[in-house]
Description:
Blueprint: H1 12-26, E1 40-41, H2 49-63, E2 70-71, E3 81-82, E4 90-95, E5 127-129, E6 132-138, E7 158-160, H3 163-179, H4 184-189, E8 194-200, E9 202-204, E10 209-211, E11 214-217, E12 240-246, E13 249-257, E14 261-262, E15 268-272, E16 277-280, E17 293-300, E18 307-313, E19 318-321, H5 336-344, H6 352-371
Parallel strand pairs: 4-7
Antiparallel strand pairs: 1-16, 2-3, 4-8, 5-6, 6-19, 8-18, 9-10, 11-17, 12-16, 12-18, 13-14, 13-15, 13-17
Amino acid sequence: MLTKQCNKPLSKLEIGRYAKRRHDAKKPRKEVPSPKLHSGFIGYSAVDRTIKRNIKELALQCWKHARDDLKCPMAQWNNADSALLSRPAFNIYFGANVGTDEPKSLLDDCDSNEDDESPPRLVSKPKKNYGFATVNRPAYGFGTGTSSIGLNPRTMRINPIFPVMTKIMHHVAKVVMLLRPEWTNSLIRYPINFVGVKGYFSVWDGKKWVQKTCEWHRDVTHTLDGKPFKNNSQIPGTPVLILTYGGDKNLWFRRQLPKKVVVPDSLVHFRQKSGSLFLLDPRDEKPTATGEHWCHMSNMQQDESVTFSFSFRSVGMTAKCTPVGNLVNPEHYTDNRKDRKFREGAHKVQGEVYEQQKSELEKRLEEFLANFGS
Length: 374
């Protein structure tokens, strides 16, 4: 008689289940094909003069908004550290003012003449509230969870978009609609309203040089049956357009199964050169019937290089901000655990050693921005 490991007899019901499993095991399983990678470069060399003319000015203007702060990604495991001097890529956020939390409020763009070069009209007037002017801005990476923001909600900023950024934001959207027309409806319905800047460079941690990275992740997360979670801040189904400036940067993709099980031999590499435009396709992040999906990460090509990437997104979630970008209600995006982590890490952005390291790094980055592409 069939027995369990504990040598107790199996019931008739258990014997039937065991036999069914053995019978099913003999049948060949239906192969589920691995998902194809849809993301890739946009070959816009014939129409890139606007980009080349303005990308240096874009980088210089963005760096003026750079402010070091504490960063604590995934706060339940990590400690807070200097955003500028720690390993994770350095973030600067920019968002267009919107008048309502609804994504459809962003549709003020494409009813104009095709030859009209004016940028999309995404800016609303500040509203008087809380005793001072406030605006709603797209809030990428916030979600509704308490650990989804790496930066400190009490001190971080969603900076206002400036004219050169608006011009390039409008231009890359037109390039994609020209060369990848299947995304035209998405970019018309949900115009780009958020730009996330990531800085990649080497930092000295007191013992060794450390390269900044952006680790394995998905921009839009889904349930196992392929439905996007409601707390995604980026509008599901919309592409991300990534413009690179500076030294070469690596962008890696790999397939994963549930519980972060990596599919063997699935690694795909792209080298992003300065001026390149890459489209991150949302289809790659949607899981198949087996839960298989693509994740991506970025790191530097060389230790001594400096790279900035500009990610143009369509974001539906908004946060109420002051005109300069501070959150009006930061307590909505933190909790006691995360606040404790930031209090415990406050010394990381203080003191003579920190100021010296910060000053040397800022000088190196400013020299790069002044000289690169000249």
